[in-house]
Specification:
The complex is a heterotrimer of chains A (326), B (282) and C (353).
Chain A (H helix, E strand, L loop, with lengths): L12 H15 L1 H28 L2 H7 L9 E2 L4 E2 L2 H32 L2 H13 L5 H28 L14 H26 L2 H9 L4 H30 L2 H6 L17 H8 L6 H37 L1
Antiparallel strand pairs in A: 1-2
Chain B lengths: L5 H36 L5 H5 L13 H31 L4 H14 L3 H16 L4 H25 L3 H9 L4 H12 L1 H16 L3 H4 L19 H9 L4 H36 L1
Helix pairs in contact in B: 1-12, 3-6, 3-9, 4-6, 5-6, 6-9, 7-8, 9-12, 11-12
Chain C lengths: L1 H19 L14 E7 L4 H14 L3 E7 L2 H10 L4 E4 L5 H11 L3 E16 L8 E2 L1 H9 L8 H4 L13 E5 L4 H13 L1 H6 L12 E3 L1 H11 L3 E6 H6 L6 E3 L5 E2 L3 H12 L22 E9 L5 H20 L11 H12 L3
Parallel strand pairs in C: 1-2, 1-3, 5-9, 6-7, 6-8
Antiparallel strand pairs in C: 3-11, 4-8, 4-11, 9-10
Classes of the chains: A mainly alpha (326), B mainly alpha (282), C alpha/beta (353).
């Protein structure tokens, strides 16, 4: 690589910069940077394109309903009156329930597999758990209907009603298909993501931290909870985001166990409906442009919901980590 | 641990026990699902299923050979499109990832991940199918490929971050350029993790049905090339599962089992290859 | 060394791909590429079309009709967009959609009936094993949510001798848009002005009451698992899966059980008043033996097909469908078209350019 000994002041700035970049390309650093930067930008461009598509293809209903689409409670394809509230409710409730169930179990498993289990066993078990992610959603749906729902009906719901039945959450008749069933199915579907990614980050935490803590007299649990986990928190939160996103967008499995009824009820045992499920159910048969625009607008609403939830969650993480740092 | 209080030891035991319980639950559910699929599906899996084309209802001996090949093609295309973009973006985020723009990239990636699979299918439909005026494997590959990007990004970034700083600094101290140090030191160390990411990603999209309904469509016959509607396993499962016929139901379960078993096999093969590579080069 | 392994894997993969990319698979290799004609639409008719196209392919190995079920609405949209050559639908296109097609393709779109299907009421009631009779008022009242208990007189009066419990009725309907729903609500709108005014007709409606199941499978599953429930499914589905269903009172006052004969009779009864474009609903038709909740399923074919090879193939297939094709329907539990309709249809087919 030639060393440039000429005086820089005589050279025009453009040529100088070009030479710099060229030299950078020779060494590969600039090129590498450009390549990875382009990929990152490609993601933003793709997502932007997607949002634009959603925006354009929902123009009819956006103009017809405006913001009232968000709190409308009627979904009537025949009389062309559409409102998103029951679906927003169902989406939020089922995803929240799914996270509530999947995060403790997923994290608990990830911790066990990363910290306690012998390496070979851990590898084998993680491999199996990751395989869960490959089960087609349709199969989850079928298993949900034929296996999970009867199981919930026979064992889980009676137990819940006996213990927590005073809560409005568990009132009313349980027909099997319900927000609760959907939440449980979703939880099973998102556990592999939490386990796989969290375990990976936990394993990556250097052993010195563990050894140091143990040397100081901490128990295994304290070592894990107070020393290893904080180092891995970013990755663990990342895995939870991944899982949440999957839950929000899941279509097939949910629609088979949620009851597909656009109502809002305080009881988890009542049937409900999610945005993704209604789009999957009605898109192929929607014939009028207005109807399709309503469904696409629901997709846009889901996107907005994702932005909101992600933003709030990030804010929470930022503030809690600032406190933890103090 | 003689100096540790009883309370702390109790908490320790309980927590460790709970963790084990969680794992038992997670693994137990999986084994149940696999077992169920095996029982319902494996019996219908025979040589005809693997090599013949679909037959109409009432005729025995039909198979899903075209769907098996079709899934292979669409998934290969999806991985070729989605994983490199995701991987490179993941590299970007882990190596140059401080500041406002990388934060935006991470945020947008999470948003992309939350898009319902059917919306992704419609997106690919408007982008590829409408201009081309027909359904194709390419459109299906694109839809699934875009779905693969967010997981690839997240996983790559996480596993690359896991590589200790000392390793990178040591490589740089030995005189290699940044990109070289990334390519030859950081990536191979995280290779196992990255491979896991590919597998998880692949698993994620292998069973997706909704995005394929409007892109690769389906086909009762072979579909040469990439430009024709293609049968795929998830779409066949969906079509057969909602039909009224028992024979088709059995084929749907068989296909579900086959899909899972294939991902399993690819996983094992890939890990084997990578670990062989390492044991030899080290 | 793992590189060689990788290379080996990739070469095997590409070889497999290369090999499989030839020919049509089931027949001997023929000169040139086979003619492929793509269609999409109704899931109800999918089993029937898959049988037809397979049989036709055996007779004409060089022609491949590829039909996929993405729903009637999807079929209509793809036909209008031009991404498929023909469509299948259980509900006729609206005038606006037909105008849209004409605008894009400078030709009319024809609705050609191919077979008949029907919806049946299926139920699961505590202590009831007999076949129930349903009057139009009973069905409308139940699905409107006005008749809430099984021992309501509207139901009990039609079923003397059956002890119906005083339990709440759980209504089950389809969650996904479908031709099955279309036929059911079309019938209800005809027999109940209140239904027509309040809910209306469509592939998806705003149901006053009930749970939504996905597909016939979903509805059947829900009905089986939920006591005191009632739902509607396609006849062919009920027959193939041995699901008990009830009789419905037709316009002539008779309680008719749905079967292939009574469904064909419904079309025969409606055929006298049938318009030339076949876009007609045949629910609640005249006729003593007619089952009132029946419907056509149509093929959507452009009136002008520019490609000569495709046109020849389509014409040949359609005339085969009207003759030999009809004989293949019964084993699959589809009802055949009455002779009056077939005759009329042959005339329409002859006009395709």
């Amino acid at each position: 690589m030639a060393v440039d000994t000429q005086v820089a002041t005589v050279r025009p700035p453009l040529a100088y910069r070009a030479r710099g970049i060229l030299r950078g390309l020779q060494t590969g650093d600039e090129a590498a940077y450009l390549i990875v930067l382009t990929s990152a930008m490609a993601i933003i461009v793709l997502t932007g394109l997607l949002v634009l598509e959603l925006f354009w293809n929902s123009s009819l209903t956006r103009h017809a309903f405006g913001w009232s689409f968000l709190w409308g409670r009627t979904w009537d394809p025949v009389f062309q009156k559409f409102g998103a509230l029951p679906f927003i409710y169902g989406t939020v409730v089922t995803s929240a329930l799914a996270l509530l169930l999947a995060v403790p179990i997923g994290l608990g498993s990830a911790l066990f597999l990363a910290e306690l289990a012998p390496r070979r066993l851990s590898d084998a078990l993680t491999f199996l758990v990751e395989l869960l992610a490959a089960v087609p959603s349709v199969i989850y749906g079928l298993l949900g209907v034929f296996v999970l729902v009867p199981f919930l009906e026979a064992w889980v719901v009676p137990a819940l009603k006996a213990t927590l039945g005073f809560l409005p959450l568990f009132q009313g008749r349980f027909e099997g298909v319900s927000l609760f069933s959907a939440g449980v199915v979703l939880a099973i579907m998102i556990v592999p993501f939490i386990v796989s990614v969290s375990r990976g980050v936990l394993l990556a935490v250097p052993n010195d931290i563990r050894e140091g803590a143990l040397a100081l007299g901490a128990t295994r649990w304290e070592t894990t909870w107070r020393f290893v986990m904080p180092s891995a928190r970013k990755g663990i939160f990342g895995s939870i985001f991944l899982a949440l996103a999957r839950a929000l967008g899941e279509t097939m499995a949910v629609t088979m166990v949620i009851g597909n009824t656009p109502t809002i009820s305080t009881s988890l045992l009542a049937p409900g409906y999610t945005i993704a499920a209604v789009i999957a159910n009605e898109f192929t048969e929607a014939t009028s442009d207005f109807y399709i625009h309503a469904l696409v607008e629901l997709g846009l609403v889901l996107f907005g919901l994702t932005i909101l939830i992600n933003g709030v969650a990030r804010l929470l993480i930022l503030t809690t980590s600032r406190e933890a740092a103090r | 641990m003689s100096g540790v209080s009883f309370r702390r030891r109790a908490v320790n035991a309980v927590m460790l026990g709970l963790m084990g319980l969680c794992t038992l639950l997670a693994v137990g559910v999986l084994l149940f699902i696999l077992g169920f699929l095996f029982v319902k599906g494996a019996s219908s899996l025979n040589w005809a299923f693997l090599t013949k084309l679909p037959k109409p209802v009432g005729e025995s001996g039909g198979g899903m050979a075209n769907a098996i090949l079709g899934s292979f093609k669409v998934l290969a295309l999806a991985t070729a499109i989605g994983f490199p973009i995701g991987f490179l973006a993941g590299v970007y985020l882990s190596e140059y990832g401080h500041g406002p723009f990388p934060a935006v990239v991470r945020y947008v990636t999470d948003l992309l991940n939350g898009v319902p699979s059917i919306v992704m299918g419609v997106f690919a439909y408007t982008l590829v199918v409408l201009p081309m005026k027909h359904f194709s494997a390419i459109a299906g590959g694109l839809a699934l490929g875009v779905m693969m990007i967010p997981i690839a990004v997240r996983s790559t970034e996480e596993f690359l971050r896991g590589v200790p700083r000392d390793l990178r600094e040591a490589a740089m101290a030995l005189g290699s350029r940044k990109w070289r140090s990334i390519a030859s030191v950081v990536v191979p160390t995280a290779a196992q993790g990255i491979l896991t990411a590919v597998m998880l990603d692949l698993a994620r999209v292998a069973g997706e049905t909704a995005p394929l309904l409007f892109t690769s469509f389906n086909n009762r016959f072979w579909s040469p090339g990439w430009n024709q509607p293609t049968a795929t396993l998830p779409v066949m499962i969906f079509t057969y599962a909602i039909s009224p016929y028992d024979d088709w139901h059995r084929q749907a379960w068989a296909a579900g089992f086959l899909l899972l078993a294939s991902i399993f096999a690819i996983n094992i093969a890939a890990r084997f290859l990578v670990s062989r590579g390492f044991s030899h080069s080290h | 060394m793992y590189r060689t392994g990788l290379v080996a894997l990739l070469s095997v993969a590409s070889l497999t791909l290369a090999c499989k990319d030839e020919g049509t698979g089931t027949s001997a290799p023929s000169a040139g590429e086979p003619l492929t004609i793509n269609g999409a639409g109704s899931t109800f008719a999918y089993p029937m079309y898959s049988k037809w196209f397979d049989e036709y392919h055996k007779l004409h190995p060089n022609t491949e009709f590829n039909y996929q079920s993405i729903g009637s609405g999807g079929g209509i949209r793809q036909v209008i967009a031009g991404t498929v050559d023909f469509g299948g639908t259980d509900g006729p296109m609206t005038p606006a959609q037909m105008a849209d097609f004409k605008g894009k393709h400078q030709a009319d779109i024809l609705h050609l009936p191919t077979a008949l299907g029907a919806d049946v009421p299926t139920y699961n009631i505590k202590g009831v094993t007999q076949e129930l009779n349903f009057t139009p008022d009973a069905l409308a009242g139940i699905f409107l949510g006005k008749i809430k208990k099984w021992n309501d007189p509207a139901i009990a009066d039609a079923n003397p001798g059956v002890s119906l419990p005083a339990d709440d009725i759980v209504v089950v309907h389809r969650s996904d848009g479908s031709g099955t729903t279309f036929v059911w609500v079309d019938y209800l709108a005809k027999v109940s002005p209140e239904w027509k005014q309040k809910v209306g007709v469509g592939t998806s409606v705003n149901w006053p009451v009930g749970l939504g199941g996905k597909g016939n499978e979903g509805v059947t599953g829900l009905v089986k698992q939920t006591q005191d429930s009632i739902g509607y499914v396609e006849l062919i589905y009920a027959i193939q899966n041995h699901i008990p269903y009830g009789k419905v009172k037709n316009s002539a006052g008779k309680f008719v059980k749905a079967d292939l004969a009574s469904v064909t009779a419904a079309a025969a009864g409606a055929s006298k008043a049938m318009p030339d474009d076949f876009r007609v609903s045949i629910t609640d038709p005249p006729g003593e033996a007619a089952y009132p909740i029946s419907s056509f399923t149509w093929l959507l074919v452009p009136a002008k097909i520019p490609d000569a090879a495709k046109r020849a193939a389509m014409l040949d297939f359609l005339s085969w469908a009207m003759a030999d094709g009809q004989n293949l329907l019964e084993p699959l539990s589809y009802a055949r078209l009455p002779v009056e309709v077939v005759a009329k249809e042959r005339q329409a087919i002859a006009r395709i350019q």
